[in-house]
Amino acid sequence: MNALLQIEDLRLTYPSSGFRKRSPEILKGVSLDIAAGEAVGLVGESGSGKTTLGRAVLGLAAPTGGRILFEGHDITHLDIKDRRSLARDLQVVFQDPYTSLNPVLQIADILSEPLIAQGIEGAEARKRVMALLDRVGMPANAAQRYPREFSGGQRQRIAIARALALKPRLIVCDEPVSALDLTTQARVLDLFVELQRDTGVAYLFITHDLAVVRHISHRVAVMYRGELVETGTTAQVTSAPTHEYTKSLLLAAPTCDPDRQKARREARWALKTGKT
Amino acid sequence: MSVPELPGGLTGNEPEQASPKHRAGALSRLLHNPLGLISLIVLVILILLALFTPLLTHHSPIYASLNHVNAPVGTPDWPLGGDQYGRDIWSRVLTSIQVSLISAVIGASVGIVVGAVFGLIAGYVGRHTDAIASWVFNLLMTFPALVLVMLLYPVMGSTYQGMMLIFGLFLAPGIFRLVRNLVQAVRNELYVDAARVSGLSNWRILSRHVLYVVRGPIVISGVFLASSAIGVQAGLAFLGFGSTQTPSFGSMTNDAFANIYTAPLQIVWPALFLALLNASLILLGNAYRDALAAPQSKARKPAVPDEQAETETVATPANKTQGGLLSVRNLRVSYPMPDGGRKLVVSGLSLDVSAGEIVGLVGESGSGKTQTAFSILGLLPKEAQISADCLSLAGDPLIGKGAGLMRKLRQGVMSYVPQEPMANLDPAFTIGSQLKESLRKTVSRREAHYMIVSLLERVGIPDPEAMMKQYPHQISGGMAQRVLIAAAVMSRPKLLIADEPTTALDVTLQAEILDLLRELQGELGMGVLLVTHNFGVVADLCDRVVVMKEGELIEEGPVREIFHHPAMDYTKELVSAILDEETVRPDPPAVVSSSRQEGFW
Amino acid sequence: MLTFILKRIGSGLVLIFIVTAITFFLTFGVGIPVAQNILGPSASADAIANLEAQLGIDRPIMEQYFSWLIGVFHGDLGISYFTREPVVNALITRLPVTMSIVLLSCLITLAISVVLGVASAARGGWLDKALQGIATFSYVFPAIILGIVLVYVFAIALRWVPAIGFVPISKSVSGWFASVVLPAVVLSIGGIASLAAQLRGSMIDELNSEYVRSLRARGVSEISILLKHTLRNAASPALTTFSLAFISMFGASLFVEKIFALPGFGTYGYTATIQGDLPAMLGVSLFSVGLVVVVNLAVDLANGWLNPKVRVR
Q1: Phi and psi at residue A231, in whole multiples of 5°?
Q2: Angle at the Cα of A66 (from A65 to A68), degrees rounded to 5?
Q3: Candidate from C22, C270, C292 with C-beta closest to B240
Q4: The pLDDT value given to residue B306
Q5: Are residues B46 and B104 in the same domain?
Q6: Is C238 part of a structural domain of the chain?
Q7: Searching chain B, which residue's CA lies closest to the CA of residue A249?
Q8: What is the predicted pLDDT for the residue at B260?
Q9: I need a labelling partner for B442 at 20 to 30 A (CA). Which of A43, B178, B398, C202 fits?
């Protein structure tokens, strides 16, 4: 399989706020490939740099080293014009469905935003908006409404529709189901899977939740303090992890069965006491 | 008065909250507000008076007639009488309105244009541009504005217009700060990031997402700036600045003040019209602010039915009465709605917690689980109304208890562990002093110190002595949660209520905190009510589970029962929504042809 | 903390430098015919040239500026062109007048704002309305109108206080108080309007914050929550508002001094400006900015004491 997205030895340090203080490196040489049609889960705890990696791919954070290739083209630092043409292939769904939609715009305006950037306006844009709403399972009358009229799960569907508007080949999903309730979360995940089957879009799926990762991704990359400590197929990483950190992460996540959780708890204690 | 700052004040300091509303709606709401409408009419009349002064007066404002010195009100052609030089007060008032309006326009527009332009640039570009602009405007803000306006009077051609030009500059920092902060807030919104990813140009992002938000607040502050400018111009003219050929409220006041023993009535006219002008501006500004901030007439409820809207028949309430520590029967909590009705957030909930038992209270957002927890603690906001057939702790009824007695209970027998550890510590005090404050006053200082140190040690804090001297911003979230747990168990409570105690933490920290809670519960024999949405946490810790949905109890039972044999459809749905641990995604990556496909959906 | 203070003093000196330089160069640029003004329109060219040489205003602009600047470091602000009185002396005799009313109004503002702001945040109701009323009132009636009304009512009609004049505090405390209380009240209305509203807003924010709920959950008393915890946290933003209110109160004191015929900075500055008496103008600007710098420094120090994030490292 040819890689759609290649991340090579990516480094990133945010510009320091003070003159003397040096800010810590957020990404310390990260390399990761994503093939077309593939879902890669990126797991890590808060502050591990997983969100920053996603933002770097999207051009929202400027890497200080390494490069990012999309279909072989270097997209590490793009000007706004090239970014606009890349937008047709690369899109985003953010975590918070409340702040990722502008509260003063109607859904139709929100969904047509990426179309406008590509010069698609008027009737054609309206037609596409309707098709998009239908695609993510929202009623057509949603177009004339405002974000506040929708629940979290519905907003996230709208955000997904916006990402789909230009028929992208890769969507960076930054914790897209973390803010949702359990039942809603399962439905939205199913929608992600279904869309991938139908459209062949690839996902970089950033999350802290291992259960979500198992559900959505073909491959998993585990991030810890700015580095990828383990990469492999989902089955490998989640059932036979090799790195210590991955092991502790897996054992720390509680399972939803009192008896199995008891066993897991004891395994975790054993791992902890074994280490010290 | 020369207040180069903004009217945040009374309706809260977040103008950005006020703005994301329909503008057209705001305007019509403004016109429907009687005070707003009257202010607007008065302002328009004053403007018309100023515009048509020559048609409305018989004399030039500087024409002095010796026959009309201190002429009384109602003298023909001197409708408001004459001043001490025999000048027509009516004509002088109208000219003064002109001068005030011109001052307002110059002062406010210089302030708005300079402040808004630089605010937009600094807020949007950020980094060094922002740092430099902010430094300059902060400096400008600390200038003693009036002194400089006065000293630069000769520089600005000795005219009041020139003074207002300078004064406008000193009004700019307020607008700058307002616009910059708003723009910066909007710039960091995820929807702006999404627009950037779509390749929208900076200009389009500014006009589409940013200008919309800043417009309303700018208009409101503009009104207040105008009023400031009017006041300052009057004050400076009162001091004597400005041409004697152009009367203004300030010079009229000065003349009348000099004449106050002879004709005290003369002070009324400039004061009256100046106040009218200011009042119409300010009240109009307030009305516009209210109009922008007005709640939507529509209810907040989702207009489109939610994803799991199918409601279920209410389940069997917990009938068995255990020799419980906490006993809740038919609890109802409601809040007032804007339309005058009341919204029930908890309706008829019953639950029990026995001594030494951990009960999980689970439900999705909006199920009323947190409201239930706060009703037991007596920590609901004032406007909440609460009732229950029984709400008792160790046989002691909690409903109708005075605030003081509830406080005593929270000091002793029941305690609380919150969700967001960092937000739940007072940032201004050290950990040690916050912990000491909730200790009983009867223990000595040394004893208190020793108790806290050993407690902090118990909850797994490596260096308790050092921790006590730390401020909350110096410690991590995991440590903060340990501190809060220490505070909660300090009094050896009988009941611990934990509201999503690990939701804000990473999984590895979550596991440690759950371990700690389990150990402490065992040591102290506490009953625990654990509010959570996370079934993993429930499986780890709880003996029994209570499932809630939309304020109602759905099902309750032992933890294994609920996981393996849920009785109610809703519980089944919840349990089946738990992502399976065993199966990983089965299907292979989607097959994509190398060329860009069109129209496949 | 020490570097923090030094930094603040440094930026204060920069501010003083900038403001006096602006005053000097801009005023100089206008070219006010000072000597002509002093000698009258009929003065001969010789006499004017003589006087200019005597006053030192025939020298190049930079030379004059630097000699003034050097003087400042020696505590010498030059001599007024018109009265021939050293500017320092003139300002020092006027300083107590202006400071009396400004400081008294600061006290009034602080006391009333804290009580009103805290009470209305805790209770709401009619206190909110009262606060809103004061705010609107302060905009609707500028200082001059309010001042005159107070003079008319309390000094002319009721004769409770003298209408005009200043009594030094060293002479008679009650006399001093009677002579400055009305101007101080006039000044404080605007200060209270902004400070109390700000304090109320930030108190409400604090009272709604989670740590307050946690304190309640631990059984901490309401009084302690209000006065110890929330007030301390709310004071930080309020202090900034207070320093701005101080600047505008100081500005408004220029007008108010005239109403009450108090011999303070306002009247001195006015005369100096109208006459083009550059040394006097520079003196006024130097003293005013210096005052603002001192107050800002005090506010920053108070802020550092209140807010551990500023204080610690």
Answers
A1: -135, 140
A2: 125
A3: C270
A4: 33
A5: yes
A6: yes
A7: B508
A8: 84
A9: B398
Q: Can you give the CATH number for the domain in which B571 is found?
A: 3.40.50.300
Q: Is pLDDT above 80 for A15?
A: no
Contacts of C222 in chain B (CB under 8 A): 403
In a domain, C230, yes or no: yes
Q: Residue B79 domain-assigned?
A: no
Average pLDDT over residues B212-236: 88
Q: Would the pLDDT of B331 be above 90?
A: yes
What's the ipTM? 0.89
Question: Strand locations in C31-142, DSSP E?
Answer: none
Expressed as residue numbers, the domain containing B152 is: 38-61+86-293
For residues B499-512, average pLDDT: 90
Residue to test with chain A: of B128, B190, B298, most A Cβ within 10 A: B190
Q: How many residues does chain B have?
A: 601
Boundaries of every domain in chain A: 1-89+168-240, 102-165, 243-276
* Partner-chain contact B283 C136, CB within 8 Å: yes
* C190 located within any domain: yes
Measured in residues, chain C has a length of 313
The pLDDT score that the predictor gives to residue C13 is: 86
> Global pTM?
0.82
Q: Which of A45, A139, A185 comes nearest B304 by C-beta?
A: A139
Burial of A163 (0-12, 13-18, 19+ CB in 10 A): buried
Min Cα distance A9 → chain B (Å) is: 23
> Which tens digit of pLDDT belongs to each residue from B27-59?
788 888 888 899 999 999 999 999 998 888 888
Contact A102 B191 (CB under 8 A): yes
A154 and B304 within 8 Å at the Cβ level: the answer is yes
Q: Are B101 and B239 members of one domain?
A: yes
Which residue is closest to A145 within chain B, CA to CA? Answer: B303
24-43 of A, contacting B, C-beta below 8 A: 35-39
Q: Is A6 left (phi over 0), alpha (psi -120 to 50) or beta?
A: beta
| CATH number belonging to the domain at A1-89+168-240, selected among 3.10.105.10, 3.40.1790.10, 3.40.50.300, 3.40.1350.10 | 3.40.50.300
- Residue B41 has a pLDDT of 94
Q: Considering its fold, how many domains does chain C have in total?
A: 1
What's C226's domain CATH number?
Answer: 1.10.3720.10
CB pairs A-B closer than 8 Å = 233
Neighbours of chain A (3+ CB pairs under 8 A): B
Token pair listed for A262 = 């008891």
Burial A140-158 (b: 16+ CB within 10 A, else e): eebbebbbbbbbbbbbbbb
Question: With an 8 Å Cβ cutoff, are B410 and C219 in contact?
Answer: yes
Q: Mutation target for A interface from B205, B579, B594: give the one with most A CBs within 10 A.
A: B579
